[in-house]
Task: inverse folding
């Protein structure tokens, strides 16, 4: 599940390795992955990679000629650098970018679903693309200060849903939201509009601390090649049934079709254990 810390780390590691490299070919073997028509991918050939950077959960590979590959890894994608081209039996690649020295930058996707996507567009049009133009402010390193953050979250919706909504704030997903709310000692179903000023301060501090801590952890532990399975340093998400690291009471979870909310009843919900049905209605 690449979220802000994983995408930021990917961008940093790759930027250091491929900046300046000449692009020798660009292909999109995944039939559904390329979501733009003009300019064609071949427009990248002969240009150099300028940088790799992140916006929200998107990766952006910029070229020296003013083009940008905008990508979303969705839930099972990775952008990885290899020192030789993919073989003919490769089925996981959605985009191949051949670099000088026979290296290859590959957008790969695991599992049977094809959800990861790529667009090639002029850098000058990046922020106009609907994928970026509708994003909220970055969750890290500097999320909005309380008056503005309070306005962003001022909705009759649960925090868990608000923080994962990329239009509200960009970069947080299903995994890190559990860690942030646990650290801020806030209930996942507390309404954004009901946050007290001190809770808003705490939430902002823990958004920065949690995401920044994850990035620092990856800086210490990850190097190229980026592994297929990222070891995410989560202590709450997917840890239901284990003791809370703060108070030792049992962590609980509420299961939904495509995500799970994990929390500590003692630290976050005044001892209340959330019922699945009630929450599924609240979070709609
Ligand atoms: Zn606890």
Result:
């Amino acid at each position: 599940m690449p979220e802000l810390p994983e995408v930021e780390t990917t961008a940093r590691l790759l930027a250091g390795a491929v900046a300046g490299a000449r692009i020798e070919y660009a292909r999109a073997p995944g039939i559904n992955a390329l979501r733009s028509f003009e300019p064609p991918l071949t427009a990248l050939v002969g240009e150099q990679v300028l940088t790799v950077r992140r916006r929200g959960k998107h990766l952006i590979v910029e070229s020296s000629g003013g083009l940008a590959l905008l990508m979303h890894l969705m839930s099972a994608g990775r952008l990885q650098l290899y020192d030789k081209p993919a073989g003919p039996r490769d089925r996981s690649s959605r985009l191949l970018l051949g670099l000088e020295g026979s290296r290859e930058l590959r957008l790969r996707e695991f599992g049977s679903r094809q959800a990861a996507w790529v667009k090639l567009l002029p850098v000058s049009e990046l922020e106009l693309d609907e994928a970026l133009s509708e994003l909220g402010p970055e969750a890290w390193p500097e999320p909005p200060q309380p008056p503005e953050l309070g306005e962003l979250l001022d909705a009759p919706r649960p925090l868990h849903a608000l923080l994962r909504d990329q239009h509200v704030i960009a970069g947080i997903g299903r995994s890190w939201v559990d860690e942030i709310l646990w650290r801020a000692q806030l209930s996942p179903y507390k309404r954004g509009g009901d946050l007290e000023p001190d809770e808003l301060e705490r939430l902002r501090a823990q958004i920065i601390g949690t995401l920044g801590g994850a990035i620092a952890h990856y800086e210490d532990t990850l190097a190229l090649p980026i592994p297929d399975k990222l070891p995410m340093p989560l202590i709450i998400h997917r840890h239901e049934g284990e003791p809370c690291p703060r108070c030792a009471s049992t962590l609980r979870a509420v299961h939904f079709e495509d995500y799970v909310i994990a929390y500590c009843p003692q630290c976050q919900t005044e001892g209340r254990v959330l019922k699945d049905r009630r929450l599924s209605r609240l979070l709609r």
Q: What stands out?
A: Residues 197-221 form the longest helix (25 residues). The chain is about 25% helix and 20% strand. The chain has a mean pLDDT of 94.
